Amino acid sequence: MLLATAVAALALLPLGYIVRYSADLGWSGISELVFRDRVAELLWNTVRLLGGTVAVCAVLGVGAAWLVERSAVPGRRVWHVLLVAPLAVPAFVNSYAWISLLPGLDTYGGALLVVSLSYFPFVYLPAVAAFRGLDPALEETARGLGLSTWAVFRRVQLPQLRVAVLGGSLLIALHVLAEFGALAMLRYPTFTTAIYDQYRATFNGPGATALAGVLVLLCLGLLLAELRLRGRRQYARTGAGAARPVRPVRLGALTAPALLGLTGLVGLALAVPLGSLATWLVRGASTELDVPELLTTTGSTLGLAAAAAVITTAMALPTGWLAVRRRGPIATLLERSTYLGSAVPAIVIALALVTVSIRATPWLYQTVPVLLAAYAILFLPRAIVTVRAAVEQSPRLYDDVAASLGASAPDRLRRVTLPLLAPGIGAGAALVFLAVVTELTATLLLAPTGTTTLATAFWSSSSALEYGAAAPYAVVMVLLSAPATVLLSRDARRGMTT
Amino acid sequence: MSALTVLDVTKSYGTTPVLTGIDLHVPAGTTTALLGPSGCGKTTLLRIVAGFDDPDSGTVELGGRVVAGNGRGVPARRRGIGFVPQEGGLFPHLTVAANVMFGLPRRQRRDRARVAELLALVGLDADLAGRSPHQLSGGQQQRVALARALAPEPSLVLLDEPFSSLDASLREETRRAVTRALAVTEATAVLVTHDQAEALSTASQVAVLRGGRLVQLADPRTLYRRPRDLDVATFVGEAVVLPADVRDGRAHSEVGVLDLEPRTGDGPARVLLRPEQLRLTEPGPEVPVARVSAVDFFGHDARVSLELASGRVVAARLDGRQLPEAGDRVGIEVRGAALPFPLEEPAAEPPTGPAAGVFGLAGEPFGGPDGAPSDLDTTTWTPAAR
Fold it and tell me: What is the set of domains in chain B, with CATH numbers?
């Protein structure tokens, strides 16, 4: 309980910092900083990108999920993997791939295209999971009542997908709000990029913090909206046993357009960035490839990621355990506060940690522990979700049974509890590890001087327009992310929860 | 194998009393069923015996040794009690063999012959030893769970609704395998169930729990033939309850003049018959007549609903060869004696606790202030498991 409280407190630190700082500024200070034309412009940019991306992703994600799960389109398994694969390409790498090919993409349309292509799997995955969880009997009943395929989709499937699509959309919205690298590269200004510019210009001015405050308000608004929209309705299958397999809908003459659509989507989301990366890799390999540098950077990235994975998973254990074994308002509050903490964009977390560490613990400023703390705040929910699921898989019953068979407490921990939790803990750690490998924003602000990661090395090369030099780092990141993507595509039921 | 003695055990969760003064003795080598509707406290009692929960007061003795109560609490792992939970509770990360051998000292765990022997004991093939629990059917999981519980040769085996999650066909087969294994090992066993047929067929004595109290402890035949009150009567099987007037030791009722067992004093009373005691004959002037209102055909037998002259509906259970049609007029003949009950429920035992509602269905019409006899046919309450 104590440990979980400490973890929650750490997660809420950035929020507390924003509140505290805003209080210091006072209302007049805030209004002076916030009510400006520039802020209005940023707000408009951010909101229209947000709305556009969520809409595009919802259509792409649900459509693709229906084709893969419910239609007889050829090669459904292959398509599934290909549709999840874009997650292996970090958004800022995707953005680099596009802008280096088509420099004219620095518009709203370009930003919408690149961000949507990077994020649509966040809707696709939960939608697939939801389709798999749907009882086919409901659809058969509807068909028996004379509904067409389209009517079944609209009146039976879509309402049941609501929770999944809302969850995915929220995730995308939060990502768009927090996205820095991709949009900075496309020179599309939003709150996050503006905060970064402010920070670079005035280091720690009140301007950056005020903007961060607005950004945080947007995030909280999203979370609340999702909570209200989601409602209390739950869709459950009654009856025991596994659902019967579904008989897919024949597409007939529509097969070719469906295939074309999927090919186009995968082509844009996967083939273009990978092709672009390959081109730059080949072009840059002869002149600019610095192998020792690449190796050191990879090494330090892996080191940081491993440390962050271990620490974050360890922090997730007490919270995940409490959430299942000691259900109650306090446990829920502690669990939720970690989610809230990480809904705050990385840039705000980084900013908060910079300020707090300079003021409270100057000897910690720009050291690895602060960076690891930022990673922990950012990625705790990933670890908590998996640990929680694992704890749920090992109910107290097993403990009781083992006790009745004469096993002592340490014996039970060793022979029953740990083996049952191990896969969940491992998966959580892997997810955190891979998230850290491609983390850009917080690392840029918090990494100790002289420490470069793959993401920051890529960033400094590509923002200096040295596309060839940036490519190898991007390729290593994509390669490292690939295993997690495979994992996700296999275990679609668990979905992606940040 | 040891005897189990539970003395005056009470337990409350918060302000809700769950068990109020339970006394129970299970002789060594026998099986006792704890029978009651859900919420009657039977699982709580089981958990207290197992050592997963502590009683608020009272004692639990196992083979003459106090394991709970009197300020003593022997932890579950030192009680030597085998526990078979509802869904089997097999460790999902271990094979069948490793599950079965879990409770044995490290050195013995590798003994393959012993695994095969234990699996054979519960009627399973030794080939299953290498499987994972999720590759087994529900019934197989239950049997492995029993083998696991029996492996360390416990002094007592507890089974918590072990068959409730199984299909009807599998349930019967698994139940028989379990009964056989318990008999072979001469285990003392306590079986928790809400299914009266399961309790009557498996156990050598049945303890009926209601609202946290032990209402009756008897062997299955006595329980069925001589239930302590009408609530127990309707809970352990379908009942035909009729108002009657006792004169000279015989009950004059709508279905004729009935012998009573035991005898009772003259005056108004209620009598209990079981549906299988009713037989149909040709209607005649000397015979009580009824109209057949419905016939439920089950193959091996049939349940015929009979509407008596007063409009009350009673059930008869007949073999399936010669059945009337709905609407027929038939005569009724009663075989064997009826069990008399006083008109009013004794006030000493008001139904209390969370389970009161379940029994209220059967109990209320009798105790009701108006005593309306036309309500009596509601007592033909059929347990769902039939």
Answer: 4-225 (3.40.50.300), 230-379 (2.40.50.140)
